Please model this.
Amino acid sequence: MAENDQIQNNQEQAVETPDGVQLNIQTIYAKDISFETPNSPQIFLEEYKPDININLGNNAKDLENDAFEVDLQVTVTSKVGEKTAYIAEVKYGGVFTVKGLDEATRNRVLRTFCPEQLFPYVREAVSETIARGGFPRFVLQPINFNALYEQAMQQAQQQQAQAGQPAEGQA
Model:
């Protein structure tokens, strides 16, 4: 009897989506993890007061049958003065099924929701890789993928508007 109650509770908690909309994570996987310490072992003899630079990138690729590969790449570069202490690059991918959405909404999901699902894996891999390289653990701070998407859309609109206007000084 308790099993039947459990099943009913799970069904009641199911999230309702509009008819025909489907969003599933098929798999998440490591695509590339690399770590370089070009100035070791000398860098370990210096006082470690790093200047950290973080680069972020994500891509979405249409596979087939409403499946899409989305990847999220983070590169963390640490410098001490002019010397590079390390370069850690982590790239995770995922295959997502996205069905029943218009193109604009689907693009937003692929650029926001999907990278959000990959981010915890990337965060852990970056932290572990750097720590195993002999440096203090580094924790990536949360990333607002919705804000990044909006910013990219605004930049694209500005570039289109500028491309349609004559250059300054021309009429």
Observations:
- Residues 27-138 form a domain with the Bacterial Protein-export protein SecB fold (CATH 3.10.420.10).
- The first strand starts at residue 22 and ends at 36.
- Confidence is low (pLDDT under 50) at residues 1-16.
- The two ends are 80 Å apart (CA to CA).
